Give the backbone structure.
Amino acid sequence: MRNYRLEADSDNPSKAWHEVRPTIEEILGSELLTRTWTAAAAAHDHHHDCQNWEPIARSVLLGHLEARNRAMNVVVYGRGFSMEDGVVLNRLRRRVERWTDMLLGRIMLHHDISDLAFDAKRVREFAADLRAESAQSPNSQVWQLTLASLQAAFQQAFDSASPNVDLNRRIAAGILASLPTDQFDSTGLFKSAWLLRLEHVTGDMQGLIDDLIQPSDPPPRRFFVRR
């Protein structure tokens, strides 16, 4: 975050606020990605009994938390913005916190990442709800509804254009590049869970057919005696 200082003796605090507000929105909003990706890295390392991803992800998270503290300091003590602006940013912060805990609840089903939550109790409650809903409905359906709700919640959440479009694109590309290639179709979109299962079943079936039609032993050689 750029080192803005909205002090009382600023020549034009209102102008300074309009310059810094997009950065504050981006810091608050991107924490959802930073925390959930750190949780995914922690779960991955725990599952594979290694320390490959989690230390790096936590280091990035610490840097983000420092930026967040500076951003909130500007919101609380800065000048040049209205009370309505403060209310809008606080609403964005709370929305990010709640959705982050909801997404962490899904990872919580497999690994304890409560230390990354805004509210550990809320994460455990979300995990329990997801477990109950998955038992009643197909897991893929629950997840599709969750993603649709997430998209709707943040579609109109930001009033300003991102000041770091290129950097955000590089971050997204780096995260996607770390995922298995078989999770994407030929157009670069995520495959549905149904399609992935179908591909696995098809591959298993093809292997079974190959085993059945391929003779286990070579046919005996025939010798002809010339009379």
